[in-house]
Design goal:
By secondary structure, the chain is an alpha+beta fold. It has four helices and eleven strands; from the N terminus they run E-E-E-H-H-E-E-H-E-H-E-E-E-E-E. The protein has helices at residues 52-64, 70-73, 106-118, 134-158; strands at 2-15, 18-31, 35-43, 74-76, 96-103, 124-130, 163-172, 176-177, 186-189, 196-199, 208-221.
Length: 222
Amino acid sequence: MCMVFTLSGKAYAQVENQSYIEVHGTAEQIVSPDKITLSVTVSENDYRKRSLASMEKEMKSALAGIDIDVRKALKVDNMSSSFSKRKTNNPNAVLSKRYILEVGNAQLAYEAIEALEKVSISNVYIQKVECTKIDSLKTAVKADAMRNAKETATAMTEAIGQKIGRAIYIYEYESRSDSYRPVAMKAMSNAGGVVEEAVEETLEFRELKVSCNVTVRFSLSE
């Protein structure tokens, strides 16, 4: 995690019978995502000789093999699970089921994809990337910007033999946080019975940046 401050200040004297100093403060923090949600679709169409039940069993075993607690991290996607019911008059019908897998970092996400690939489960993509502590991070950045504004005001006024008093005006510019967009982790085509896929050897996400800008006026005293 890193932190950057950029500050500037302008002093105003005896405006509306109030002497004050106005300073601008900017604070920024950068963090890595700590929650990556993957969508995993298990389908008999991936490998016709296996039943859905056997594929689910192999999927869970593969994930457990890389120290993923499947009881906590793997859930059925109730909102978008797709079931194609087998019909006796349709021998080409297949059964499929969609899961949501949550992991804590990009490396584990890549390892999960690799483990699933080894058991012929290839329909996997990134659904969401998050920083679960984003709200507390925003609060901390705002506080840092305010503290830095005060430090700047103090340094400027001490240089001319004055002191700052209470804050008489505070304005916060909209805090900004870079957001993530879902990114395809693996592309798969099963046309003509030939599987074509593209898998990155490494998986990385850009870091999340949260910044805040404030303008603060402090009253002045001798």
